[in-house]
Amino acid sequence: MNIESIADIQAISNVLACHSRGVDRADEGLLAGCYHDDGTVDYRFFAGPAAQFAAILTGAQKAGPVTLHRTAQMWIELDGDRAASESYIMAYASSAETQHLICGRYLDRHERRGGEWRMSHRTYVLDTNLNWPGGGALPGLGALGNHVPVGGHGAADTGIALLAQARAKNAGHNRGKGYQPMRHSQQTLDAVVSRQQIADLTMAYCRGVDRADAALLGQVFHADSTVVSGAFNGNGQDFAAAICALVEEAYTQTFHSIANQWIEVSGDAAVGETYVIAVSTSKDGATDTLTGGRYIDRFERREGRWAIAERSFVLDWTREEASTRDMTGGMYAALDLHGARGAADPVYAFMRGDGAG
Questions:
Q1: What is each CA distance from 111 to 51, 218, 302, in whole angstroms?
Q2: pTM of the full structure
Q3: Per DSSP, what are the bridge partners of residue 305?
């Protein structure tokens, strides 16, 4: 990995972020523009040209309340002018009767054509969902002191106006100024690349736990590493085996979505704090648990390879309730490509290049 690879990963990440913006803003042009002209999708309820999908989905979005798609931990693997990625998605949607939190993954293929990265194919995987009675209507007009910007579709969205205003200010700031690129030391460039490699480690951790893949999870930790998690306190390699056995024994599914990651690199060592929201369903299917917390990590690079030397989990909040997980009914009926444990999960065939587009 080098600085050019980081630039490619950032360009692909921006496309993935724009895809979520296109859906939530019901912006057909923005959504279709995330794909090459011959791009395709497989969302199960629709499989075919991406442009047609963009028209269908944004039309449906305009007819309903605003949604929010939180696309996180975009694990992107580059191969020249092609790339493959797995992204975790938590989507909020509502109707007059029900609020939904939908947890799944995007398995995407990307291509760089004419110097521009866009998607060539997307497959959607449903992992789990939580559903609550009652609509998610935003509060109506109240005291002026309580007003905040409210999301909307298309030009009615406050964020669209704010972004346009920010771009106009930037254009004024840059007018008449020559572009002077920054120069960076080798140490700075190494730290940039290291942060990306460390971020990839934390995403591998989530896949390892959720897929109960002890071999992958073990690669995240150095041989003499330590873990303090409450569920297990001890050696990192032993943790990898024990937590995967616990996941298999105690849960129908787990889903770990990480975000706002802070990483500080100092030579061959680094520290990091990563926020996590985990959604799990008990083995008997009776209980859903949401857990919010943070991973506090110390990393070391040994013989050119970064891995976790010390990891602690800090619990910030938790919520437990009767399960409302529905994988076959209503709006979920058509989403019949589901997450699984081990090699049965779609991501493994996808990354081998023999499945999911």
A1: 17, 31, 33
A2: 0.92
A3: 302
